[in-house]
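Bench notes, afternoon.
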Amino acid sequence: MKSKPNQLKFLKYQKKRNRGISVKRNYLVFGNYGLKAINNGFLNFKQIESARKALVHNFGKNNKILIRIFPDKVITKKPLEVRMGKGKGNISDWVSVIKPGIIIFEVKYFNFEIVKKAFFTASQKLSIKTEICYE
């Protein structure tokens, strides 16, 4: 998985508000189990990648794990001890905007106990609350 997009129209976006419930990507498409977000927040590439590695460790390499989110929003930060003004800060991180109801991971697997254990270890790596959803 790539850590940032190849090309954007604007490099630095405004922050906006992260309110409401997810309207898109809130149902299972590819698998029969999914990890769904309960609250809103941001997930950066390191969190997504560590959760993916935890899933691969539990399921094995041959099983299909689908990641439904991508870090395409930029977070900027000004350096320490810099006065206000003089433009927007430098890029510090790429994040994915998470709203309640969005499905983060999907997996096609048949043993629910293994899926439950794997999604628990993956949710420990994320900074938001999650739950398991299924068909």
